[in-house]
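Colleagues,

For the teaching module next term, I've prepared a clean inverse folding example: a structure given as tokens, and then the sequence designed for it. I'd like students to try predicting residues themselves before seeing the answer, so please don't circulate the second half yet.
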């Protein structure tokens, strides 16, 4: 068996490649096919060229006539399908990709398609947190022609895969403390980055009582992680802020979840995983922005000291909050984090990301991330970034008309508003803590902080594979967040 291979995305109507000594059109024609060749249809040719393997994968019919954003996704599907065909072969070590059509998309697809999380011991798992030495990936990819676009795609994919790993690792291996340790290790040696790991005493000193109310049921110490990246030419320039929900395991607390499928709640820190992973790529790529990323981290468990339904706490911003359901804990940890980030660092834009509601799963399934925003401009930029990376967003209604569902309790706010519009009422709850957003009458539009809430409960986990991702935790919307910031920088 050869140890090296090529991947060639093929336009069935105009097969071409830069692989030396390979007539790809003639080789492709040796396999009988119908008139329609679906994207991702892959043929593996051995001893082509001599001693090597070539995986040729279709870009689909009429590729040249497609729009640019469609072509990018077809490249990802084609390259991903080829990687899946090759990664099952024993002995293969190095794969050279013909990335000439779209180097960025090809790099993203190759590295995402290779990822396959497991903690099985035979063969040894590269995801085992107890490894003394890292296990190299099964395949090493390189393009036929080097480019900055390929390298950028590698950075995007690495960060998405990091988020997938953080979300996949079980809660006993990915505690708040372990999460912070892994993040510090990933950022080691990267320029213009400072990391601060705060404890519960610090949170108490800030009055973060809604965050701390979630921590009472567990004996695992809570953390409040901050990453400061200063890549702008002026280090005191107004930053962007990312806030990520970091519930490293969510049992629901006293309002206990059903047992079936509860192990998925190891991924309830998906918001934290995605924002820190996106921040990593932004720092690696040295994008010229200032960015503050904060993640409140805790478990949500029942216990003798756990918060009870009906308890009322006072948030960092002074508002009273009734905890009607302890399984609506995400908005409790986020509320203090959003208020802290918006008042302490005064960002021009704040984006929070959270696996927040089951309601968004019912509304959008696992294809689109729900977005609630006070800014049309921010929405448009997020939408553009999501389309560019096929990490898609759908705008949802953020209306005060939902207010009576969460304003009618014994406190200023109630942490649930019933089943109707559940994701909408959750977003409206968070809006109350986004300090400095645009007023209803638009009077402060020029100086207002732009805010968006991304509910990723539906997109956190894929129940079916795609050509360039397996089933499991997705790491979305890492690539879209990176692309959004890159768009600002450009």
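(Answer key — instructors only)
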């Amino acid at each position: 068996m050869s140890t090296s291979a090529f991947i060639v995305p093929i336009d069935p109507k105009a097969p071409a490649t830069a692989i030396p000594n390979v007539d790809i059109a003639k080789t492709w024609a040796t396999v009988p096919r119908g008139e329609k060749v679906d994207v991702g249809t892959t043929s593996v040719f051995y001893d082509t060229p001599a001693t090597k393997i070539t995986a040729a994968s279709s870009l689909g019919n009429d590729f040249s006539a497609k729009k640019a954003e469609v072509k990018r996704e077809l490249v990802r599907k084609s390259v991903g399908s080829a990687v899946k065909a090759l990664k099952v072969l024993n002995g293969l070590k190095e794969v050279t990709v013909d990335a000439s059509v779209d180097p960025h998309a090809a790099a993203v697809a190759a590295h995402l398609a290779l990822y396959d999380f497991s903690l099985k011991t035979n063969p040894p798992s590269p995801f085992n947190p107890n490894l003394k030495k890292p296990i190299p990936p099964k395949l090493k990819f390189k393009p036929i022609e080097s480019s900055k676009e390929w390298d950028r795609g590698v950075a995007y994919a690495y960060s998405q895969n990091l988020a997938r790993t953080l979300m996949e690792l079980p809660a006993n291996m990915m505690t708040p403390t372990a999460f912070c340790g892994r993040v510090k290790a990933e950022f080691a040696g990267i320029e213009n980055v400072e990391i601060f790991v705060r404890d519960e005493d610090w949170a108490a000193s800030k009055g973060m009582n809604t965050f701390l109310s979630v921590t009472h049921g567990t004996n695992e110490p809570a953390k409040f992680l901050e990453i400061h990246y200063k890549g702008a030419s002026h280090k005191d320039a107004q930053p962007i802020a990312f806030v990520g929900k970091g519930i490293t395991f969510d049992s629901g607390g006293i309002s206990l979840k059903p047992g079936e499928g509860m192990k998925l709640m190891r991924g309830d820190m998906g918001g934290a995983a995605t924002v820190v992973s996106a921040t990593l790529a932004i720092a690696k790529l040295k994008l010229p922005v200032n960015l503050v990323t904060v993640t409140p981290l805790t478990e949500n468990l029942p216990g003798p000291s756990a918060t009870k339904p009906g308890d009322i706490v006072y948030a960092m911003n002074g508002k009273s909050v009734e905890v009607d359901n302890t399984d609506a804990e995400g908005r409790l940890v986020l509320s203090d984090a959003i208020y802290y980030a918006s008042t302490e660092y005064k960002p021009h834009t704040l984006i929070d990301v959270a696996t927040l509601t089951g309601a968004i799963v019912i509304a959008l399934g696992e294809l689109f991330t729900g977005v609630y925003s006070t800014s049309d401009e921010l929405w448009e930029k997020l939408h553009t970034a999501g389309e560019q990376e096929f990490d898609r967003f759908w705008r949802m209604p953020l209306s005060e008309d939902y207010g009576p569902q969460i304003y009618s309790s014994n406190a200023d706010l109630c942490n649930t508003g019933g089943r109707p519009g559940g994701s909408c009422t959750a977003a409206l709850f968070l809006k109350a803590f986004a300090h400095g957003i645009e007023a209803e009458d638009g009077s402060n539009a020029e100086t207002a902080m732009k805010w968006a809430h991304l509910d990723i409960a539906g997109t956190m986990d894929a129940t079916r594979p795609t050509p360039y991702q397996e089933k499991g935790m997705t790491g979305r919307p890492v690539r879209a967040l990176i692309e959004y910031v890159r768009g600002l920088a450009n």
